């Protein structure tokens, strides 16, 4: 179960690092729905990771308690980097849309 949590953690970090580039590309093609969908998927993975960590914290073996504690410390950084990543992704989306000359549909 700890391996699953570490794998989810790595997957979310990778997605957080790729989200600004994804926002840049989707802004050029005016695909707001795809960017929103990607953000919802990442937030769902974060919810799954937090649930897994809290479950591990409750049932951790004594030898795994230190590893789970370290994973919980990284979770605070992960939430912060996701906020920055989402802000950059949506900022790049808007910037590229304006640069390409696409108008708002709303």
Structure in words:
Helix 1 packs antiparallel against helix 2, helix 1 runs parallel beside helix 3 and helix 2 runs antiparallel to helix 3. 18% of the residues are buried. It is built from three helices and no strands. Helix content is 86%, strand content 0%. It is elongated and about 60 Å long. It is an all-alpha fold and 106 residues long.
Q: How far apart, in Å, are the first and last alpha carbons?
A: 45 Å
Q: How many strand units?
A: 0
Radius of gyration over C-alpha positions, nearest whole angstrom: 17 Å
Strand content: under 5%
Helix content: over 70%
What value does the average pLDDT take?
Answer: 89
Described by the principal axes of the CA atoms, the overall outline is elongated
Total count of helical runs of at least 4 residues: 3
Structural class, please? Answer: mainly alpha
Low-confidence blocks of residues: none
Largest sheet: none
Short account of what is shown:
It contains three helices and no strands. It is an all-alpha fold. The radius of gyration is 17 Å and the shape is elongated.
């Amino acid at each position: 179960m700890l391996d699953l949590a570490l794998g989810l953690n790595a997957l979310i970090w990778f997605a957080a690092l790729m989200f600004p580039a994804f926002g840049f590309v989707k802004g050029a093609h005016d695909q707001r729905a795809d960017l929103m969908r990607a953000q919802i998927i990442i937030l769902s993975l974060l919810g799954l990771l937090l649930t897994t960590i809290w479950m591990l914290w409750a049932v951790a073996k004594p030898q795994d308690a230190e590893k789970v504690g370290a994973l919980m410390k990284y979770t605070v950084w992960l939430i912060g980097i996701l906020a920055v990543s989402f802000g950059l992704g949506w900022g790049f989306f808007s910037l590229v849309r304006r640069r390409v000359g696409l108008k708002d549909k709303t």
